[in-house]
Amino acid sequence: MTAVTTLFERIETTMPDFKARPQQVQMSEFIAQAMLKPPQKRIAVVEAPTGVGKTLAYLTGTIQTALLQKKMLVISTATVNLQQQLIQKDLPRFSAALEEPIRFVQVKGRRRYVCPSKLSQTATTPEQQSLNIHVDEKYQQVLHLAQAKQLMSEWEQESWDGDRDSRRDKIDAELWQQISTDSEGCAGKSCSFYMRCPYYKLRREMTAAQVIVANHDLILSDADLGGGLVLPNPEEILFVFDEAHNLPRKALDHAAKALNFIQLYQTTETADSVLKKIPSALAYRQHDFGYMLSELRRDLPAVISHLQQIETILHSDGVVQDLLEKHISEPRIFWNSPLVNALLIPCQGVLQRANSIYKHYSVLAKWIKEGLEKTQLSNKVGEALLPQVGTVQNIFGYLIDFMALFLEPDQEDRPPNVRWLSVESFSKQQTLVIHAGPMTAAYFLDRSLWSRSYGVVLTSATLRGMGLFHRFRLDCGLHRFDEQHFLAVPSPFNYQKQAILHIPDMRFQPNEQQQQWQQEVVTKLTDIIDTKEATLVLFTSKLVMEAVYRQCPAAITAITMVQGDSLSPKNMVHRHIRQIESGKGSIIFGLDRFAEGVDLPGHLCTHVIITKLPFPVFTRPIEQAKQEWIIRKGGQPFTALSLPAVSVKLIQACGRLLRKETDSGRITILDKRLLTKGYGKKLLAHLPDYQLEQS
């Protein structure tokens, strides 16, 4: 008997309603064996369909290794719902089955918690009386001050724990920016609020915990900064990435950087403002920073000058004019193009100055923290100054990272970085933004996580496209791991008995005869929807969804909720459940948000209707660049990118029907391409083995 089966027996004893499934034990054993491999080989990738019980499987497969090797088990998810389920339900039940209970804690980024020092400063700052302040800004200022005072009062009376997510009311994003902080702006142990600080309370809980529940964004942010800032170093962590199919996309978002002109001008102003306060605040170190001040007084204006040169070059380009006039969106700019060649010298100038500014402000931050520790600096002055110094340090550090991507020459043998432009709103102004990012997150993930972590488990209900792990493997940087690291667990569902897949006879195709197909969808929905049932209708276009809704008969629209109307998706689900529980019918018209992650078991969803095959639309610059790279290498983007993506999305959408082994119902797909196109038949072949019904 293995350690895994012994642990499952204990779980069955403590949970009378639980019986380990063969697929669950298979998954758990596979993970446990993978964690016994040599360093940099401890990776297990598992596709576990709905109903397998993957949470208990990966907990059982990892916990003994984590405890024995004294490593932190970090479980990362993509959604708040799954984090809450882990903390409130799964981990307490799992812990109760162990010989010794484990300690676990949910961890979020520092910015999710209030900074009591900054909140105190904001709540006690007198209103600005300047005549230059616009009446709207004045009103906003009054609102912010009133809310800050209210928040301070609630936090001091312990009726609020300082966690942004625990509030029912909404805190304005601009105010939250003022009353939260990042690591550079934090005084740490020297802060007068240190012992009561929500974030440091969490850090103290973390040191005593054996399991941490986090989200992908936090893990990736920490990895992007080198690891070990929020969490322990990756070498001390056994990672489990649940909902891992989201990881490549999120990793790309973290790996890409941007140059925002207005933000940089404002940060340079902040840096200059700080510079004026330093001589008096750090008077006791006066002999140390004479050269530093002279360099900063040279570098800060130089940054402004270089940024203005870059803006002038951009505004003289026809593509940028088209962007500003909204004729195009997110145009790409290319290495060795006249525009990029013209930008190289001022960008190198910005990089040189940014390195100097970052270095000097890092030293200033260190001195302020030391001054607070040694009481050479008053808490009031130090805690007010440090966040400003930290902001400068943070933004210029980010600018250095951007320039590293933007100025890296293209190479023939590896995917090039992608560069593009956009117009965005920042501080209530429109600004031009330059973006640069890698085409794939593979190198970032391998370098920062797979090559460093003690062990890694990647799991989701859908990781394979067209029956293969190939696309996920490439996007995640797992190409050096052979098939021994990958497992597709069979489903415990009896698809033939539990679900009917109905593909009605459709006259029109959505991609060739859009209007006729749309009208035909209205007719079909009228025929196939039972208004007494729980029905989920999935669309790929908001415009089509709204047009179809307007044309449906009153019997359907009367009980239908449409995504994007007055209710949030979460509240739509709540109302849908109330309707069904009260014995009435309910219909949801939804987009992507409802095709993945929505859990409506049993009678809460008995009919899923997919109006159109969910082909991804590759319009973003990085996606376009990836297609071009595949063509350059002799591949076909449709086969390499589109088909695997639509396969995953289609399986996820169909997966909304069966959530438990006792569920049953039907799936209807209103897209004849599944039967008439060669690729459609391949997509159909890789769906679960539903009972197929054609008409």
Automatic annotation (TrEMBL):
<dbReference type="GO" id="GO:0004386">
    <property type="term" value="F:helicase activity"/>
</dbReference>
<dbReference type="Pfam" id="PF13307">
    <property type="entry name" value="Helicase_C_2"/>
</dbReference>
<keyword id="KW-0408">Iron</keyword>
<keyword id="KW-0238">DNA-binding</keyword>
<feature type="binding site">
    <location>
        <position position="191"/>
    </location>
    <ligand>
        <name>[4Fe-4S] cluster</name>
    </ligand>
</feature>
<protein>
    <recommendedName>
        <fullName>ATP-dependent DNA helicase DinG</fullName>
        <ecNumber>5.6.2.3</ecNumber>
    </recommendedName>
</protein>
<feature type="binding site">
    <location>
        <position position="186"/>
    </location>
    <ligand>
        <name>[4Fe-4S] cluster</name>
    </ligand>
</feature>
<keyword id="KW-0547">Nucleotide-binding</keyword>
<keyword id="KW-0347">Helicase</keyword>
<dbReference type="InterPro" id="IPR039000">
    <property type="entry name" value="DinG_proteobact"/>
</dbReference>
<feature type="binding site">
    <location>
        <position position="197"/>
    </location>
    <ligand>
        <name>[4Fe-4S] cluster</name>
    </ligand>
</feature>
<comment type="similarity">
    <text>Belongs to the helicase family. DinG subfamily. Type 1 sub-subfamily.</text>
</comment>
<dbReference type="InterPro" id="IPR006555">
    <property type="entry name" value="ATP-dep_Helicase_C"/>
</dbReference>
<dbReference type="InterPro" id="IPR010614">
    <property type="entry name" value="RAD3-like_helicase_DEAD"/>
</dbReference>
<dbReference type="InterPro" id="IPR011545">
    <property type="entry name" value="DEAD/DEAH_box_helicase_dom"/>
</dbReference>
<keyword id="KW-0004">4Fe-4S</keyword>
<dbReference type="InterPro" id="IPR045028">
    <property type="entry name" value="DinG/Rad3-like"/>
</dbReference>
<keyword id="KW-0067">ATP-binding</keyword>
<dbReference type="InterPro" id="IPR014013">
    <property type="entry name" value="Helic_SF1/SF2_ATP-bd_DinG/Rad3"/>
</dbReference>
<dbReference type="Pfam" id="PF06733">
    <property type="entry name" value="DEAD_2"/>
</dbReference>
<dbReference type="InterPro" id="IPR006554">
    <property type="entry name" value="Helicase-like_DEXD_c2"/>
</dbReference>
<comment type="function">
    <text>DNA-dependent ATPase and 5'-3' DNA helicase. Unwinds D-loops, R-loops, forked DNA and G-quadruplex DNA.</text>
</comment>
<keyword id="KW-0378">Hydrolase</keyword>
<dbReference type="Pfam" id="PF00270">
    <property type="entry name" value="DEAD"/>
</dbReference>
<keyword id="KW-0413">Isomerase</keyword>
<dbReference type="InterPro" id="IPR027417">
    <property type="entry name" value="P-loop_NTPase"/>
</dbReference>
<feature type="binding site">
    <location>
        <position position="115"/>
    </location>
    <ligand>
        <name>[4Fe-4S] cluster</name>
    </ligand>
</feature>
<keyword id="KW-0411">Iron-sulfur</keyword>
<keyword id="KW-0479">Metal-binding</keyword>
<feature type="domain" description="Helicase ATP-binding">
    <location>
        <begin position="10"/>
        <end position="288"/>
    </location>
</feature>
